Structure formats: structure tokens, C-alpha cells
Amino acid sequence: MSPSITIRPPREDEPRTAVEIRDVRIPPVGLAGILRYPREAGAIIVFAHGSGSSRFSPRNTAVAEGLNANGFGTLLFDLLTLEEEADRANVFNIALLADRLVDAIHWLDRESPVRRRAFGLFGASTGAAAALAAAARLGDRIGAVVSRGGRPDLADEILDQVRTPTLLIVGSVDYGVIELNERALSRLKGPKALEIIPRASHLFPEPGTLEAVIDHAARWFACHLGASPPQAE
Predict the structure, then answer these.
(1) Stretch 25-35: mean pLDDT, rounded?
(2) Residue 73, class by beta-carbon neighbours within 10 Å (0-12 exposed, 13-18 middle, 19+ buried)?
(3) What does the pLDDT look like over 196-224, one tens digit per residue?
(4) Fewest Cβ atoms nearer than 10 Å: which of 31, 114, 178, 186?
(5) Is 188 helix (H, G, I), strand (E, B) or coil?
């Protein structure tokens, strides 16, 4: 077993499911992450959190658990070291954040039990720009991108290079961000869609709105990563 992976049992506050959970360290700088995957996962989704967040983001954790329930593996990890976080400019350094996503994908290809599987990227806020930048660099290695309340304008220079199927999800009352996503949508070159969630604001705290994000994301990933579509309850 790779020394960068440590198996641990679920914490008391984590759902008891058939999802294996591993604490990981992603080289070359040893970024901490949480890898979760069902035993039969056909694809893994790598998350890029927004500014001021981390691998423990409650919203991204909720989305990851929803994707796990639909048969996807997930990787949530810290994009910056503690020293790097001390410099606020790094939070908006999209090139650096994209580098970290590329490192994570390369590490998964080499080390993880889900290597040779399909990969998707899920980005929130500034993390969405990093996900788009990483997708432009990795090309066909990324099968789909989903953005939640994203800031694709922060990846303005590379939007014309993104051919990865991309779903942009925005809240209907996230004024300003809707327009940023509409402009980004017009420049993306691959399959693309914009979903506006009714009554949702930027962080999707309203009842039922994050569940809608999970549903749209799961369907997009299922369609473009070759996985089985989520089953209606």
C-alpha cells in the first residue's frame, strides 16, 4: 500500500454507508485530503473548494456524500498549505490552484485504488475557475466539470480552451454571479449547460437547494463519465 494513504474507520458524525474512507496526502507538497469511494465506483470526482474553505467544507462534503450515494468516488483536499493560506493572494491564484488539481489527478492515476477510472471535477466559487483551468490543461483526462456558484470569470484567459463537458449551477438570487456564468457559458467550446436553481443564493443554504445541486451534478457526471444514471427514489 502507498505510504500516502491511511485507512481509517468513519467518524461518529459520518454516515454509515458502503463507502470506504481514506485519509490521504497528495504529493509533491503533502496536501491533506479525504478519499471516499464505493467499492464499485466507476469514476471519481475531485473537488476544488472556494476561498476561505478547506477539505472540511460542509457544503462540498454534502455534495460528495450525495455523489457517493450515486456510485461516484470523491476526493476533497486542501488546495493550499497552511503557509500558503497566510498569503491571501494565493486564494485567488487560479494557476496555482489548478496546478494542485492537476497534481491530484496525476496522483490518483498513479497511486489510488480508483486509478484508470474516469475523472470529473467539481468546483465551488473560486475553485470553479481552478477546475476549468485544470480541465483545459488535462484535456480528455477529465470527462466532466460541474461548477456550483462558480466564478468562471477568474479563469477568463482559458475559457476558450475548455472543451470538457461543463455544467454551471447558479442560484436564482445570486445576482451578478448569474451574469458571470452566462458570459462564461458562451465561450466554452464543449458540451455545456447552465442550471439556475430557484430561490437559491450564493452558498445554497435555502431548504432543498443543495439537494438540487447534487441531483444536477450526479446526472451530469453520469451522462459524461459513463456511469449509471442516478435512480429515482
Answers:
(1) 95
(2) buried
(3) 999 999 999 999 999 999 999 999 999 99
(4) 186
(5) coil
Q: How far apart are CA 192 and CA 190, in angstroms?
A: 6
Q: Are 49 and 33 in contact (CB under 8 A)?
A: no
Q: Structural domain of residue 174, as residue ranges?
A: 13-225
| Domain assignment present for 3 | no
Contact present, 155 and 94 (Cβ < 8 Å): yes
pTM tops 0.85: yes
User: How many domains are contained in the chain?
Assistant: 1
* Sole residue written with cell 435512480: 231
For residue 168, the domain's CATH number is 3.40.50.1820
User: Angle, to 10 degrees, between the axis of helix 209-225 and the axis of helix 58-69?
Assistant: 50
Q: Decide if 164 is inside a domain.
A: yes
